[in-house]
Amino acid sequence: MRYSGFKVIKEALSGHKGWKPVWREPEPKKHYDIIIVGGGGHGLATAYYLAKEFGEKNIAVLEKGWIGSGNIGRNTTIIRSNYMLPGNEPFYEQSLKLWENLEQDFNYNAMVSQRSILNLFHNDPQRDAFVRRGNAMMLAGADAVLLDEQGIRDLCPYLDYDNARFPIKGGLMQPRGGTVRHDAVAWGYARGADQRGVDIIQNCEVTGFDINDGICSGVETSKGKISANKVAVCVAGSSGRVMSMAGMRLPIESHVLQAFVTEGLKPVLPGVITFGAGHFYCSQSDKGGLVFGGDIDGYNTYAQRGNLPVVEDVCEGGMAIMPMIGRSRLLRSWGGIMDMSMDGSPFIDKTHIDGLYFNGGWCYGGFKATPASGWCYAHLLAKDEPHPNASAYRLDRFLKGGMIDEKGMGAQPNLH
Question: Residue 409: what pLDDT?
Fold first, then answer.
């Protein structure tokens, strides 16, 4: 069933009796060509592109919970490609281009809104760094606009320009950045994959790998053993735990990242705004709520909840640039588990075990990377060679000195 304006009108006039489930609830088969462990955005996108672009037919996605229960439904919905290093910028630009046509591609309203993203700067050295980043973006085919203080005032007159500690001097804008409805992305990819024959199996936890003589030939699950020619893992913050069952220790740490939403307000933010003197980013949802976040909690955890010190730190960052938000009421918060790599950049690669592949280490960048991650992972699985835009995302890059240190923080995940 394809969605359309005509279909909505027809169902409205017929009591909405013609709608069908968005995807099937199949029982797992004994064997698949490819098993994808993890039914989040990256896993579902991988399955979708494997079926649609690479012609794979016998695919299963195994999710230990329900679709949308992980990081795909626990983020601040921001999309952008304002990266600088050559290992990252082409990849995220590919992702942004896929976002731009995503709804038409999988026939689902994901509420893609390219309302722009604006990174504020507060001093001259930071301005120079943003000029360099903007030039790198444009050289890679992305869009970037440097705004002075008056340009920011024209867009956002309500910011605290006279803050003695953090005066706003200007900002780097990417007009094509914006936001997307996070859970709708999961539903759209799941629906598109299911339509192409992919089995999406919920409440099916992987409890082990079937590995013999260095070859992975399937997985052990809560629903029994399932064999496969290839097993592709993409489980975000659970990467360390899952891959340890294959005897692998990954160069990542798991941290919780909190996000928050306020009560509904009148339209005030034109797009996404980020604080340049701290870690705070904020947008406004279609319901009017301010959706914002900041730093990860500094301790290692697998719990989808955070602690109050980071709540205070995030709110301080918001108050530094928009004191007016101090009068709004916080409705709710949530936490996603970030698999923080040692250089702040991800992995899409084969492992040393034949038939076992890994996608992870996305740090803060997982949601915005969803389409390109799925595409490049599908390319790797189908062709057994990395996609050109993901060729730097090797598991052995620390061994070979090929780090992609986008933030310049070095091997300290708590500072990414």
Answer: 64
For the chain, list residues with pLDDT below 70: 409-411, 414-416
Of 32, 38, 39, 37, which Cα lies nearest the Cα of 59? 32
Decide: 267 and 312 in contact? Cβ < 8 Å: no
Among 56, 42, 60, which Cα is nearest to 98's? 42
**In sequence order, which residues have a C-beta less than 8 Å from that of residue 349 and are 6 or more positions away?**
357, 358, 380, 386, 393, 394, 395, 396
Q: How far apart are CA 331 and CA 235, in angstroms?
A: 28
- What 3-state DSSP class applies to 243? helix
The backbone torsions φ and ψ at residue 266, rounded to the nearest 5 degrees and listed phi first, read -65, 155
Half-sphere exposure of 100 (CA within 13 A, CB side): 13
Secondary element (H or E) of residue 341: strand 330-341
pLDDT in tens, 192-240: 999 999 999 999 999 999 999 999 999 999 999 999 999 999 999 999 9
Q: What six digits make up the tokens of 211?
A: 């590995």
The SS3 of residue 365 is helix
290 contact partners, CB below 8 Å, separation of at least 6: 261, 262, 265, 269, 282, 283, 284, 325, 328
Rounded to 5 degrees, φ, ψ at 169 are -100, -15
Q: Which tokens hold the place of 314?
A: 């995030």
Using a 10 angstrom Cβ sphere, with 0-12 exposed, 13-18 middle and 19 or more buried, the burial of residue 249 is exposed
Cα gap 12→173, rounded to integer Å: 41
Q: Which residue type, as a one-letter code, is found at position 205? A: E
